[in-house]
Specification:
9 helices, Four Helix Bundle (Hemerythrin (Met), subunit A), mainly alpha, single chain
């Protein structure tokens, strides 16, 4: 038996095998930002339950800003991954679906009891459906390049910002929390949910800023600083203004989308090959 199991002394200089392969930090950094945004969404729910609605709204706004940053950082660092995409989608559902729905219910929709709760559920489910459709559409290889400038329906972060418009107005002195205004808020909330799940195109702005004319560089710097200063000094006035302007520009985006769609269809008709067996006309 001793021959079958000879004594074995491990080599002290032999390198130890790693259980897990090291992951580059560029793959982790975007996910850290996503997790911070997720924590802000959960924190906003707690703030709403404690009645601190202003801080809750600001937490959602910061989460929306981080949502726009993490994807760009991932592409800049070449750190995109399937895990990051799934984590981002789950965080978006909570931050821009569940959180604004609970904030609105705690703020004013509870006045309508079960009807207000149903309106909150509709908003949260609409965000989930919108994100699921977005995840499916980005895998479409036949999607024209110009369609990347548009979302199909309202994006979930913008939907959350628009859904919180009643709170912006309330912070500015409008009596939104009155029970007589609750039905109006309910109709508005369901309308935002409809815009998220609809096929109405809205401008995405993803390709905006790739190339800027040289003469516009300094004016853009000045306008950016002015906008940031106004947003810090008058946050809810600016949020209400941005929301209203965005809602008013939806018809402009629809008309632009339809025009590009017609132009694309005409280009497709021009390059369509002739049927087989049919001779081209003389002089072609």
């Amino acid at each position: 038996m001793s021959d079958l199991f000879p004594p074995f002394a491990p080599d002290p200089n032999e390198p130890r095998k790693r259980l897990f392969k090291p992951v580059p930090f560029r793959m982790i950094a975007p996910n850290i930002i996503t997790l911070i945004a997720l924590c802000l969404g959960l924190w906003a729910i707690r703030l709403a339950f404690e009645g601190r609605y202003e801080q809750a709204v600001l937490a959602v706004i910061v989460a929306a800003f981080l949502d726009g940053v993490d994807g760009r950082i991932a592409r800049l660092l070449k750190g995109t991954s399937r895990f990051g995409a799934e984590l981002d989608s789950l965080a978006d559902f909570l931050n821009f679906g569940v959180t604004p729905a609970l904030i609105l219910y705690s703020f004013v929709l509870h006045e309508l009891r079960s009807l207000g709760w149903i309106g909150s559920i509709v908003l949260a489910i609409a965000a989930a459906l919108r994100l699921a459709r977005f995840n499916v559409m980005i895998d479409d290889p036949n999607r024209p390049e110009w369609k990347k400038n548009f979302f199909v329906g309202m994006a979930a972060p913008m939907g959350a910002m628009c859904a919180l418009l009643p709170l912006y107005l309330s912070f500015l002195g409008t009596p939104i929390r009155d029970s007589s205004v609750a039905p109006v808020v309910l109709i508005y909330t369901v309308g935002i949910a409809f815009l998220m799940v609809s096929t109405i195109p809205t401008y995405s702005g993803k390709t905006m800023g790739k190339y800027v004319p040289r003469q516009w560089v300094l004016p853009i710097f000045v306008l950016s600083v002015a906008a940031f200063g106004l947003l810090i000094s008058f946050p809810f006035e600016m949020l209400a203004l941005i929301t209203v302007l965005f809602l008013l520009t939806i018809p402009i985006g629809v008309m632009r989308y339809r025009k590009l769609e017609r132009d694309d269809a005409m280009r497709g008709a021009d390059v369509q090959p002739a049927p087989s067996g049919v001779e081209p006309p003389p002089g072609a």
